[in-house]
């Protein structure tokens, strides 16, 4: 939707209207992330995902489109690997990628190529790896599979981030960061996988490296340890991982799952804590200040998040419902939850 300025027919207003039009054309172009504030359309607070979809990752695509991947919290693989594509404005959507039987966790979208990268193989539960894991690459418009890159099977490939020259993936049971190089503005991806050992990243029992964000140059990434709650700044050239020095009422973020960074404001989705911590980072990403927590009565073990305009969108997993004994998982419905920053 675009703002419109009507020309008045009276001669005395012609020059005034022309000045307004000129100013608007130079300084008031409506960006996509402002549409929700300038439009009279009320965007939905909850967007349902098809029943039985055991959702995990959420990623923004073109305009107001979003994608949600499907894991297997319950062990039922009927819908695993499916990717749902929806719209934040209308709340409507459809299945972009039908179930493959191989779970999909983190997602990342590259607007240059319209490629959607999906971390595959991680079941989402705590029983450990079951399949060969790595990346699948789809066209985000049609859902056509372009290729699959296998990393191995002794890992938990969790989150994924596309940058200018590479795609990075976290392994939640090791200090290894996986890298797939990109060429030609992202149009060509290689099956060669590089391993970056994150020196200084301290491991704990259970899951560790999870969400990751960074600038598009990919030189440094911020990664959360989901168990200890420590934020790390990782140099992708050397692999050096240094804890981010966070000041304020909260300095550690246990249950830290998905990350979203807007400028230098970092949003940390703490899944079982059911809150989003907001941290202002320094320009060099080495320091941070805790600002506040964002909570919602609609949260039901949300994992990953994305942002659009003045809002954060989280994917509810309903994890505890899916793993409840005797639960009919085909009837459980996840949803996308909107909260204000």
β-strand percent reads 35-45%
**Count of the separate structural domains:** 2
Question: Kindly state the mean pLDDT as a whole number?
Answer: 88
CATH architecture of the largest domain: 7 Propeller
Strand order of the biggest β-sheet? 18-22-21-20-19
Which regions have little confidence, pLDDT < 50, spanning 5+ residues?
A: 1-38
Determine the number of helices (DSSP H or I, runs of at least 4 residues): 3
Helix and strand composition category: mainly beta
Q: Can you identify the CATH superfamily of the largest domain? A: YVTN repeat-like/Quinoprotein amine dehydrogenase
CATH class of the largest domain: Mainly Beta
Radius of gyration: 21 Å
What is the succession of H and E elements? HHEEEEEEEEEEEEEEEEEEEEEEEEHE
What is the first-to-last residue Cα distance?
Answer: 23 Å
The level of helicity is under 10%
**Annotation, overall tally of beta strands:** 25
Summarize the structure.
Helix content is 6%, strand content 45%.
Describe this structure in words.
There is one protein chain. A hairpin with a 5-residue loop joins strand 21 and strand 22. The chain has 341 residues and is mainly β. The protein contains 3 helices and 25 strands. The chain has 2 domains: 1-30; 36-340, YVTN repeat-like/Quinoprotein amine dehydrogenase (Methylamine Dehydrogenase, Chain H, 7 Propeller). The strands form 6 sheets. A 5-stranded mixed beta sheet has the order 18-22-21-20-19, with no helix packed on it. Strands 1-25-24-23 form a 4-stranded antiparallel beta sheet, with no helix packed on it. It has a 4-stranded antiparallel beta sheet with strand order 2-3-4-5, with no helix packed on it. The longest helix has 14 residues, at 14-27.
């Amino acid at each position: 939707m675009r703002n419109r300025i009507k020309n008045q027919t009276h001669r005395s207003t012609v020059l005034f209207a022309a000045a307004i039009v000129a100013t608007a054309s130079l300084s008031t172009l409506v960006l996509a992330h402002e549409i929700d504030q300038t439009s009279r359309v009320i965007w939905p607070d909850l967007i349902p995902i098809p029943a039985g979809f055991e959702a995990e990752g959420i990623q923004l695509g073109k305009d107001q489109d979003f994608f949600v991947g499907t894991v297997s919290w319950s062990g039922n693989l009927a819908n695993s690997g499916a990717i749902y594509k929806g719209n934040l404005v209308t709340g409507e959507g459809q299945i972009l990628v039908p179930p493959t039987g191989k779970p999909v966790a983190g997602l990342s979208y590259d607007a240059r190529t319209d490629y959607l990268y999906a971390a595959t193989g991680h079941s989402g539960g705590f029983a450990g790896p079951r399949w060969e894991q790595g990346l699948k690459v789809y066209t985000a418009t049609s859902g056509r599979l372009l290729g699959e890159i296998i990393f191995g099977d002794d890992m938990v490939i969790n989150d994924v981030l596309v940058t200018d020259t590479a795609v990075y993936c976290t392994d939640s049971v090791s200090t290894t960061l996986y890298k797939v190089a990109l060429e030609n503005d992202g149009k060509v991806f290689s099956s060669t996988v590089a391993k970056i050992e994150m020196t200084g990243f301290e491991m704990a029992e259970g899951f560790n490296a999870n969400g990751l964000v960074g600038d598009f140059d990919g030189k440094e990434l911020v990664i959360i340890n989901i168990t200890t709650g420590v934020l790390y700044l990782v140099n992708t050239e050397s692999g050096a991982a240094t804890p981010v020095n966070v000041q304020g009422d909260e300095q550690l973020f246990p249950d830290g799952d998905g990350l979203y960074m807007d400028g230098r404001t970092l949003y940390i989705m703490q899944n079982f804590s059911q809150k989003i911590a907001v941290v202002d980072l320094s320009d060099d990403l080495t320091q941070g200040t805790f600002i506040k927590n964002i909570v919602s009565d609609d949260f039901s073990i949300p994992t990953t998040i994305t942002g659009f305009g003045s809002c954060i969108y989280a994917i509810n997993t309903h994890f505890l419902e899916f793993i409840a004994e005797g639960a009919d998982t085909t009837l459980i419905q996840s949803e996308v939850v909107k909260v204000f920053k």
